[in-house]
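Journal club side-thread
Mid-discussion, someone asked how the predicted structure for our own chain would compare to the paper's figures. Pasting it here so we can look after the session.
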Amino acid sequence: DVSLVQYLKTLEIQRTGKRHIVPLWQAQGYTGTETVVRHEARLRRGAFRDLRVPGCTHDALDNPWTFLEHQADVFALVVGQANPQPGMPDSAWIRRGLPTDDSNRSRWPTHPARRIVQAATFTPSPAAVRQLMNIEQQSSDIDRRVRVIYGALVSAVALAVPHGEGWDVSRALTEIAPLLVEEAEVPGKEFGELVRDRKRRFHLPIQHWDKIAPERPIQAQADQPDPAELDQEPAGHFERAWWHLQIAERRIQDILVQIDRTKQGGTSVQGLIELEAAYLREVLTRDACLTTLENLH
């Protein structure tokens, strides 16, 4: 019913990407270069019922709220007390002694490294640190998923494209986008609903809409108005934002077509830089319009 696990926490973080504990270490002086060893006492309910700590009646530790008030006492029973009373044996469920000439190992003094483990504190983390822990973990989760997406994209191109080694990531995204749209049309795979479901699982805030906007087509459609025809800015904040959004969307599509043509032709580097700058400018315009529409919704 009682066990103690020791492992390299820094190595586990590298393996799993679970970095939520790092800000708590940094608040205690961690710089990112130290090796951190975790000492984790694991107790089953039978142990909680049998343990005796000062101020607790029989079976009291079986109550989780009572246990939270006596974490340090329970940990001391497992690993020993950092400062035992003079004349009292340094008893513990598991201990690490410093070898001496004494044949009775129970009388060996506690190893200095073990004293550090015994001195562990159990104080609540400050609110600011807890917030940093959430931000750190969320950022790590996003980075890890981006790496997964990138690896999956590389594998898809390697399997499906005979000369895919000549592609870059933007070409791969452009080619796979129609397949992702088809996947989103499968029953039960609606993108917005899945995002909302993930947000619930991640305990993130969800923005509620009356309906989900339809997916934007990958290629410019013939029934879209030409920007030259949209020469009259409409009245009303919502209509104006939507009007500018349509123009930005159409210009983005046109620029992407031009960029594809430059890769086939021999456009100068300067021309490509100008196209990329125009693309970024229209993307910023589109995003600003979307923000305006969301605020007006």
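Post-session note: The chain has a mean pLDDT of 77.
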